[in-house]
Amino acid sequence: MADHSTIDDTRYVGQAVRTIEGRAPIVGAARYTNDFVFPGQLYAHIVRSPHAAARIRRIDTSGALKVSGVVRVLDGAEAAAHIKPITHYIDPAVFGGKSAEVRVMAVDEVWCYGQPVAVVVAEDKRTARFAAQRIQIVYDVLEPVLDAEAATAPDARIVVPGWDSNIMMQAPFRNGDPDAAFAKAAHVVKTSVDIHRFSTQPIETRCYNAVWEHDIEGVTLYATAQNPHPLRHVLSEVLGMPESKIRVHAPVIGGAFGMKMHGHPEEALMCLLAKLTGRPVKWTETREECLLIGAREQRHHMELALDADGVILGLRDRYFANVGAPSACPGWGMAFLTGLTMPGPYAVRDIDVQMTVVITNKPSWNAARGYGKESTALALELAIEDAARQLGMDAAEIRLKNFIRAEQFPYNSPTGLVYDSGDYSGAVLKAMHAIGYEGWKARQAEGPKDGKYIGIGVAFELTPEGGALPGTMVAGYDSSSVRVAPDGSVRILTGVTTPGTGNPTGIAQIVADELGVTMDAIEVTQGDTTTCPYGFGNYSGRSTIVGGGSAALAAQQVRAKVVTVAAALFDVPEADVELHRGVFSVKGQQGRTLTFKEVCYAAYTGAYSVAHGITLPLEATATFKPSNIRHTPDENGRINPYPSYSNAAYVTVCEVDVETGKTKVLAFAAAHDCGRVINPVLVEGQACGAISFGVGGAMFEAIAFDSSGRQLTRSFMDYVMPRSEDLPAVKMVHHDSPNPVTYMGLKGAGEAGVGGSAAAVVNAINNALIPLGVSLNTLPLSAPNVWGAIQAARKRGQREAAE
Amino acid sequence: MMDDLLVQSVLVQWRVNGKLHEIEAMPGMSLLDAVREQLGLTGTHMGCQTGHCGACTVMLDGRIVKSCLTQAATLPRAEIVTIEGLKRADGTLNPVQQAFWDEAGFQCGYCAPGMLLSAMELLAEHPDPTDAQIDTGLAGNLCRCTGYRSLVRAVKAAAAKMRETS
Amino acid sequence: MSLYPSFARPNSLAQASELLAGLSGGSVIIAGGQEIMPHINHGAMQPDIYIDIGGLKELRGISEADGVVSIGALTVHRELQGNAIVAEKLPMLADAASRAGGGRQVHNRATLGGNLVAMHPLYDIAPALLALGAEVELVKAGETRRTSLAALMHETSHGLGSEAILVRVLVPAMAAGTGWAYEKLKLSGGAYGSANAAATVQLDAGRITAATLTIGAVADRIIDAAAAVQGLIGQAWTAAAAEQLELRCPALVKQPLSDQQGSGEWRQAMAGVVARRAMAAAVARAGQK
Ligand SMILES: Cc1cc2nc3c(=O)[nH]c(=O)nc-3n(C[C@H](O)[C@H](O)[C@H](O)COP(=O)(O)OP(=O)(O)OC[C@H]3O[C@@H](n4cnc5c(N)ncnc54)[C@H](O)[C@@H]3O)c2cc1C
Question: Interface pTM (ipTM) of the complex?
Answer without folding.
Answer: 0.97
